[in-house]
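for the writeup, i need someone to sanity check this before i put it in the appendix. the sequnce is what the collaborator sent (i think, or maybe the updated version? ugh). structure was predicted straight from it, no edits. if anything looks off just tell me and ill rerun, i have time this weekend
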Amino acid sequence: MTSVQTNMGAMTALQNLNKTNREMEMIQSRINTGLKVATAKDNGAVYNIAQQQRSERSAYDAVATGLDRAKAIGDVALAAGEVISDIFTQMREKAVAASDTSISATSRAAYNAEFTALRDQVASVIANAVFDGANGLNGAAANYTFLANTTGSLTVDLPILDLRLVTGAGTAVASPAIDVYLGTTDDLSTAALAATARDRVAASLEFVNASLARLGAASKRIESHRIFVTKLQDAMTGGIGSLVDADMAVEAAKLQAAQVKQQLGTQALSIANQAPQAILSLFK
């Protein structure tokens, strides 16, 4: 039917052109944002999954920060502990030399001065083994605990060593590994005291080195878990990308096709709008 009131051809052409325009808007949105699912309107289910994973990944940033802090605390404690181990090694040398009954009083005094200077340095090293307010060598608690996942169901511990000298003269300690531990007043003023200090320093050195090995193992575990968290976050990022990222090569091809369809649709609408003009020829 030919009618000047109703132009079905133009209506159909307009519907197709509008559809093409909507397709163009969607393609341009994907190109502008780089996302095929930018809002819940694009795909509610995928958007929900992606947002949950983004939240989880963001939460792991806090876990990673805590593990970085743990590693730093451990590194500072290990560095200071190694200094103390070196100090004890030097002290042992002085004590062994001073335990020789044949040395002169002058030599003994020199050894004693060096020994006590090294002895007093231990407290200073421990006091300065601090990172962000945490001291891993002062025995303030059993360990520091850090989050290993976002729910708090998993944690990693960093032991707090107690490398402080015993107050006063060296005394017996609870650990069965050593008999005595060096004290804050031990010196080499006599051969007998030097012999006692020699044995205490040797036991203390053994204790320090064993403690550092334990701290090193814990620090290594924290470092390994930090690497795992990084890989986990990277995997999450990749998973989110596979869900929501637009394939720009595909979108470019779609854009070219949509532009051609838009031009053809515009021409089709123009032709359809001219159709009623043909009615005039019927009345000539």
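The first strand starts at residue 130 and ends at 131. The two ends are 19 Å apart (CA to CA).
thx in advance!!
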